[in-house]
Design goal:
With 357 residues, the protein is mainly α. 82% of the residues lie in helices and 0% in strands.
């Protein structure tokens, strides 16, 4: 069995090399021919600022996350990291490895996901445990991770409406976490306390051997991550350069029926789709200040803008890392499940607020 496991990365690496070569060949051909006119011509400056620099930064984050996750697994630190949340997770039949990933999710989603994949590869988490923990991490940890940034953008622009919006999205995150904990308790078997502690103890080994094991596994897994991430990132870069995501935003904005909203609220949703997060907030703040929208209408517009714009942002910004950390099929499924659950929770909290006036 060990021989089969050792041979598997070579097969994946071979596929990855062909995909990578194909992507680079496509990129080179488009750059050389300048297809699509001057606006789509890939100059050296454009490649560096829009592709090379962001891609290098992403690979550094992925590498650091994978190395830290591998070290935590090999050194047996999962029990310590997940100890503070162990009683809650134990109630949900989740192991301390899940607690370690949950703790990491408060600081870095990439680190949390790489830890999950490492624990799954080592056989310390089952497929179901990994999936439920991944979705569980997408609740409060992700919300609190981005709260400092979003708070100081939303509050100056929308004030009271922004605070209510943050409160509702926080309730949605808490609701996701609670539902997933209940689902884990229902779907997963109860843990045996003695067996869990024994499983968490790493086998006795010298520090040199542990360091060599960490480095060996890191190199093998990081090469796999790179070989999957690069082609997907390149394809998304090309799609963005050719205006695919702009077209998707415009098409979505033109097909979303907003007749039930005031014109100002509909404009906030369209700004959220056509531009970025801050543009929607700025538009909401302007309409609120001029009295074109009430606080209640502004909150609903912000939530609706979040709902309709999230899928496109997830596809553009999160798909490459998910495909690189997990696998193309699994990473895509996890991302779709996470975003679907997030949108559903926002609808659940928005409907009662919309009915309350």
């Amino acid at each position: 069995r060990q021989g089969v496991l050792m041979a598997r990365p070579k097969t994946l690496g071979g596929r990855g090399r062909w995909l990578l070569l194909l992507a680079f060949a496509l990129l080179g051909a488009i750059s050389w021919l300048g297809l699509g006119g001057a606006s789509h011509h890939l100059t050296a400056g454009k490649l560096y600022h829009q592709l090379g620099s962001p891609l290098l930064r992403l690979l550094v984050y992925l590498g650091v996350g994978l190395l830290v996750g591998q070290a935590i697994e090999s050194l047996g630190w999962a029990a310590k990291l997940g100890g503070w949340v162990a009683p809650v997770l134990r109630w949900g039949h989740l192991k301390r490895e899940s607690g370690a990933s949950f703790t990491a999710a408060f600081f870095s989603g990439i680190l949390a996901n790489t830890m999950l994949w490492t624990f799954y590869q080592e056989g310390k988490l089952s497929r179901g445990e990994m999936t439920l923990t991944y979705l569980f991490n997408g609740g409060l940890p992700v919300y609190l991770l981005h709260l400092p940034t979003t708070f100081f953008i939303i509050l100056p622009l929308t004030r009271e409406a922004g605070l209510i919006y943050l409160g509702l999205t926080g309730i949605a995150a808490l609701l996701r976490s609670a539902v997933l904990l209940l689902l884990a308790r229902w779907r997963l078997p109860a843990l045996s306390g003695v067996g869990e502690e024994v499983a968490l103890k790493p086998p006795p080994a010298r520090k040199e051997k542990i360091s060599q094991e960490i480095w060996r596994k890191f190199r093998r897994r990081f090469s796999r991550v790179v070989l999957y991430t690069l082609p997907i990132y390149l394809l998304i870069f090309l799609a963005n350069d050719w205006g695919l995501f702009t077209w998707l935003r415009q098409a979505t904005a033109s097909h979303v029926s907003l007749s039930f909203l005031p014109m100002g609220a509909a404009s906030v949703v369209i700004f959220s789709l056509a531009a970025e997060f801050t543009s929607g907030m700025a538009a909401a703040g302007a309409f609120l200040q001029t009295g074109a929208l009430t606080v209640h209408q502004t909150v609903l517009a912000l939530i609706l803008g979040n709902i309709v714009a999230t899928p496109i942002r997830a596809l553009r910004h999160q798909l490459p890392t998910h495909v690189g950390i997990f696998s193309p099929g699994l990473g895509t499924r996890l991302l779709l499940m996470s975003q679907g659950l997030r949108l559903l929770s926002l609808v659940v909290v928005a409907v009662p607020y919309a009915m309350w006036n």
